[in-house]
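<goal> How does this chain fold?
<body> The protein record starts here
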Amino acid sequence: MNGLLLLNKPRGMTSHDCVMRVRRLLGTKKVGHTGTLDPDVDGVLPICVGSATKLVQFLTAETKAYIGEITVGFSTTTEDASGEVVEQRAVTKPIAQADITSVLQAMIGSGRQTPPMYSAVKVKGKKLYEYARAGIEIERPQRDVTIYELELLGDVTHADGLVRFKFQVHGSKGIFIRTVATTIGEKLGYPAHMSDLQRIASGQFKLDDCVTLEQIEAGDFRLLTISEALTDFPTVTVDNWVEQLVRNGVKLRDEQISPPMKSGMFLIKSTTGTPLSIHKWNEEREGYTSIRGLW
């Protein structure tokens, strides 16, 4: 069994838990996910099965989209609902919807983000959450992130000194939506945290195309082929002679790839449509070299 499984990850399970469950359900050990989702988050989790595990490094999407909820009035250690309260300040005056919209619009664009202490980002060989659980505060490396879209969804509710509202965000790889939520709160003048989150898209893969673990157990699913999984990649079809060169790991000359692909990775297919490899222009070697064979 080979291909890409689009899983609607349930809450309460880690991404690794899902991989283990899929291994049991499909009866195969070669299973790997393409992007971690926190246990409290549900939604799109692409999982590679069989020979498609060769694609894991290429399917870590550059962009992802989420629908979440922000609770304004207190912040937590983990920046989400699972953590302990760090700071609390009742919202005594209503926050206008126009003010929230203004803050969201102002955050669209590129900037730097500091990852939460309770995250899997590694510093000096250890994950940040390991330092956090040991009570060790460590300097966290900032990362460049981009918010492409950030909009308010639905009404803003006020109750018991708290303000809640839903939002939709489309951001770059590596962005922490928990931190986006706390930053929104800060800009509104209050401590805040992310109280709910669902991933609705990972690159080209959408929530509507995903299946549940229950559907997999019932056999109600299909695996995307390698070609379907890589539809975002530029594609070059080569003749039988060049196909043999690809299979033998030979560097390809400029004239053997048409049209030229001098920028970024691309997929090479045979004349029969079989995916052969991921290639890239190698300036040093003055030719196209293989990043990963797919046969």
Observations:
- Residues 15-26 form the longest helix (12 residues).
- The mean pLDDT is 93.
- The chain is about 20% helix and 35% strand.
- The helical segments are 15-26, 97-106, 128-133, 177-188, 213-217, 226-229, 240-247.
